[in-house]
Every structure is written in structure tokens, then in C-alpha cells.
Amino acid sequence: MEIKKLQEKLTRKKVSVWKKRDRKIIDEYSKGYKDFIDYSKTERKAVEYSVKELEKHGFKPLDFYLEKGKIEDGDKIYYVNNSKAIFAIKIKGNITNGISLVGAHLDAPRLDLKPEPIIEDTDIAMAKTHYYGGIKKYQWLNIPLELHGVVIKNDGTKIDVSIGDKPEDPVFVISDLLPHLDRRKGEVSEVFKGENLNLLLGTISISYEEEVKEGVKLNILNILHEKYGIVEEDLISAELEVVPSLPARDVGLDRSLIAAYGHDDRICSYTALTALIEAEPEIRSAAILLVDKEEIGSDGNTGAKHHFWITILKKLLKLQGSINIELDIDDTLLNSTLLSADVSAALDPNFKDVHDPANAPKLGYGIAIAKYTGARGKVATNDANAEVFGKLRKIFNENGVIWQTGELGKVDQGGGGTIAKFFAEKGLSVIDAGVALFGMHSPYELASKADLYETYYAYKVFLNKN
């Protein structure tokens, strides 16, 4: 008996979220997420959705407060960066005390149309693509695909394009080679070439007169012109993304999982968004930062390497009456804590050999906290301080958050990066925490509804109590 008590006292036991939480509450929260993930097929659409939700709950754009000339406790502010990233904050006390920040990314692996995409070969019109982020190319063959994005015309007009997301729309496909003829051998990366990921657009010529050359391509251009008023050159100044045409669905007879495109990392973006909307910060200001370009290194003026949010903080400091913004922004950053909200790899019984079962997160066991990511000796990682992990663990334990540790596979087997290191280099205390997934970076990833809900709850506790 004494040994049993000692075991309970000294050892850690992982707990299933399903054992502790109300199933109805989890299912209800999951419905909202499925609406979000189905709408947010691109980072632009995710920002649109987020702005609507923030404004519905009383958030106002930064310009409103700049015109007002001051900010006060309880003010709710947001700022959109180039339509593809967003920062939102609830003011509580002096910003120099630091902020509790949850940062996630809105982009997901996909295919992008090349600048001059439309070609004709063998009387078939196709669109050339370039893959974005880490994908398994074969997974994108012979599945239904949609096309979303914007085209900027020569006169500067912006045209929104969405094809494939409505029941009456056509979808697109990249054809695969039938098994009867496929005798290719070698590494998967050699067999499936990125240059061959060509989207089928059509097979009907605009005319079958002999003098008409590339009539199928011309017919496709004509269809686009009639629908959107664009010409071929307009496609050069466009961002057109090819994504799976696969709606979010419950998975399993118990409906405990959700399959969807873009869980990585829109699942953490949504949980962060809803957590901030419902948060009531007790100690200091609470904020979220949802950025772009993480899947390709966080570069560009909408990625985590571009610290546009620091400029916003400087403006907020000025609105609070700061007389030395450069010193005050340094204090703000050094006193702030960021949860780098990103996904991790769940322990899959079909592929147990690539995981360390003692440290791999399990589906349904809560938010996964990763002290480090990186690869090959923790290269390119934040590697959170023990103090940060200790404080987060205390906050979570005191508020009943169900959590587990996470990583991206065995040592020398896996690896990957998040936005964490780009914030740590600015002086913030940073640690990774998010949802564990099956099939990460595939067109149809899997997540537990329990982990979805618990991550939302964990972020809300962090924003309230940190």
C-alpha cells in the first residue's frame, strides 16, 4: 500500500481528455472549428474569417485608436498586415509589464500556380505549379483540388478567385500513372517530380479550324476572361493557390477525430483566436499573432521574421503615454512570454518505429508542449528555458489543463522548426505548445477533437493567468 502511494506521489501519469471533459462541450466547440477550417482554405481567407470574428466581439482596428489618441484597460485592438497576417490584443495595464502572446501560422503546405501557368500539350490545357512547403508529392495526385487566391489586373484592380468550393463548381485534378503501366523504380523523391504536378484545366478547343493554334488553352483563357475579366498577363501578378477540395469530416465510429486540410497550423490559429476572444486577462495584456510563410522559413513581410507587430507595440506604447519608446519596447519584449502555437507529431501505432513512445504525444491526451524542435542536435530551435516550462506547467496544473510533452520523432529521425526562435531572438520567453496530429503536411490531416478543445482551453488559461 505504501509503495502504491509512493508511486502516485512520484510518478507522472498521462490523462485522457475524454475522461475529464464533457463530450458535448467538445463536440460543440469542434463544430465552430470545422466551419473555420472549411472557409479558411488560404491564409487570406483565414484572416478574413478572423477579422469578422474579432469585430463581432468588439475589437476595433488600430487606426480607430490612433485617431482617438489613447488606449485604456479593456480596449480590444487588431491590425492586419498585407491581408495575410494579423495581430490582436486586449489591453490590461502598462504594456511595459509585458504581454502574454500566442503565436501561430496561417499558411499550410499546398501548390502555387507559376507566374505563367497555362500551357497546352497533346490538346490538353494544364496549369504549371510549384509546391509550397514540405509535401509528399504523390499524395496530391488524383484527388479533387480547388483554386483560391487573388489576381491583380494591369489597372490595379484586385480580383478574388475561388473555384471548386461550391457544389456547382468544377474541381481540378493532377493525374497519376495507372499501376498497369507504372514500372518506375527508385526513391519516392526521384519518381515523383515537382515539375510534373500539372493541374488539368480542360480539353475542349475554342475552335477546331486548322489555323487555330493552342485552341484549348485559348478556350481556358476565354473562360477566365468571361468570368473574371482577366487576360493571360494578369496571371503574372497573382497569388493562386491549389488546395484539396476535401471538407472537414468527423472520423471514426465514435467521431472522436477530425480530418481536414490545413490543421497545420490553422488548428492552433483558431484555438488562439477563440481563446483571446473569450479571455479576461488578470495580470497583463493578452494578444495573438497569426502569421504567414512559416512553411517556407518565415521569410517575407508577412512572416515571423518580419516583426511588424513590434511597430504596433511601439504605437500602443505611445498611446499609453510613453516618453521613451525605444527603452520601453525593450522592456516590453523582455517581460513578455510567447506560446509558439504549432502542431507536433502524434504517436501513430502504424509507425511506432519513428517515435520515442516515452516522449511522443498521444491523440486525446491534451495540448502537447515541446521544449525544443529543430533537428540533428537541436539545430535551428528555440530550446525553451527550464524556467519558462516550469512557470507554464504551474499555471496549467493549477487550472486543470490536461497537457503532455511532445516532439517531432526520434533523435536523428525527425525534426522541424516553428516560429519560436524568431521571437526568442527578440528577448521574449518562448515555448512551443499545440495540437498533436496524424498525417502532418498531407492533404487530409487528422486531429483529436479532445486535443482541439484542450488546446483552446490551455491558451485561454495562459492568456488569463500568465
Automatic annotation (TrEMBL):
Q: Which Pfam families match?
A: Peptidase_M18 (PF02127)
The record's annotation in Gene3D superfamilies points to:
Aminopeptidase i, Domain 2 (2.30.250.10), Zn peptidases (3.40.630.10)
List, alphabetically, the InterPro entries matched: Peptidase_M18, Peptidase_M18_dom2
Q: Which cofactor does it need?
A: Zn(2+)
Q: Which UniProt keywords apply?
A: Aminopeptidase, Hydrolase, Metal-binding, Metalloprotease, Protease, Zinc
PANTHER family associated with the record: ASPARTYL AMINOPEPTIDASE, M18 FAMILY AMINOPEPTIDASE 1-RELATED
Protein name as annotated: M18 family aminopeptidase
What species does this protein belong to? Answer: Marinitoga aeolica
